[in-house]
C-alpha cells in the first residue's frame, strides 16, 4: 500500500478511529508495522489523539522487582 498523506494511512488502517473507542480485539486486525519505533512514534501520537475516551498510561519495568 502506498499512501501520500499520514491521514490517508490512518483512515485506511483505522477506519472510524475517531468514533467510539473500539474494543481491544479491533487492534489485532488493524496495525501498522515498521522496522523501528522511531518511524511510527509520531503516527501513534496522531492516532491516539483522534481516539475518544479517557487516556490511560501503563508503565513497564525493564527488570524483575
Task: Give an account of the 3D structure.
By secondary structure, the protein is an all-alpha fold. The chain has one domain (1-65). The protein has 3 helices and no strands. The protein has helices at residues 6-13, 26-29, 37-50. The chain starts with 5 loop residues before the first helix and ends in a 15-residue tail after the last helix. The relative contact order is 0.17.
Keywords:
single chain; 65 residues; 0% strand; mainly alpha
Q: How would you name the oligomeric state of the polypeptide chains in this document?
A: single chain
- The termini sit apart by 43 Å
Radius of gyration: 14 Å
Mean pLDDT: 88
**How many domain modules?**
1
**Main beta sheet: strand number and arrangement?**
none
Helix and strand content put the structural class at: mainly alpha
* Fraction of residues in β-strands: under 5%
Q: What is the share of helical residues?
A: 40-55%
Topology order in helix (H) and strand (E) letters? HHH
Topology:
Elements: H1 6-13, H2 26-29, H3 37-50
In short, what is this structure?
With 65 residues, this protein is mainly α.
Amino acid at each position: 500500500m502506498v499512501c501520500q498523506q499520514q491521514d490517508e494511512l490512518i483512515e485506511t488502517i483505522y477506519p472510524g478511529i475517531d468514533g467510539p473507542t473500539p474494543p481491544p480485539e479491533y487492534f489485532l486486525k488493524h496495525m501498522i508495522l515498521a522496522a523501528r519505533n522511531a518511524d511510527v512514534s509520531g503516527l501513534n501520537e496522531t492516532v491516539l489523539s483522534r481516539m475518544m475516551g479517557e487516556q490511560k498510561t501503563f508503565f513497564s519495568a525493564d527488570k524483575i522487582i
